[in-house]
Amino acid sequence: MEIALVETGTRGVPLRTRCTGAGRFVRQMGPPGRFGVIDLVLEPEPIYGCTLSWEVSEEQIPLLFLDAVISSIKHVLSEDAFDGDYLSGCRIRIVDGAYNSTDSKISCYQMATVMAMREALRSAGLYAPADSTAP
C-alpha cells in the first residue's frame, strides 16, 4: 500500500542515501506489558515529496496501527533536531515489525516509529546526533 505524505513548510530536505531504522519499544515489567516493533527503510526516489510504503502483513503489524505510524513520522519531521520542514524525494518503507495481541498498543507503535525514524535520519545526516551528555 502506497500513501502520499503531505509536506508542509518551505524547507524541503532531499534524501540522498538509503538508510534504515529499527524501533523497539518493549516493556515487559508487570501486566499489561508494552510491545511495539517496527523496521523501516528510507530510500531516495525521483519524486517530489514523500511517500509511505506499507509492506508488512496484518500479522506483523495490524493496519489498526497505521495512523499511529504516520502521525509519528510527521512528529519526527516537525522536531527542531530535523534539518528541514519535510522530506523531499523520499520513500519510507515499513518493511518489518512485530505484534503481540495482548501487549501491543497504539502508543507502543508511536514510540517505536519515533525511535526508528530518528535512527534512520541520523544515519542520513538529517537529524541532530543524540546528545551524549544527556542522562
UniProtKB/TrEMBL annotation:
* Keyword NAD attributed: no
SUPFAM superfamilies on file: Ribosomal protein S5 domain 2-like
Transmembrane spans: none
Write out the entry's keywords from A to Z. GTP-binding, Nucleotide-binding
Domain Translation elongation factor EFG/EF2 stretches: 12-125
Entry keyword Nucleotide-binding = yes
Name the Pfam families on file: EFG_IV
State the InterPro entries in the record: Ribosomal_Su5_D2-typ_SF (IPR020568), Ribsml_uS5_D2-typ_fold_subgr (IPR014721), Transl_elong_EFG/EF2_IV (IPR005517)
Question: What is the recorded name of this protein?
Answer: Translation elongation factor EFG/EF2 domain-containing protein
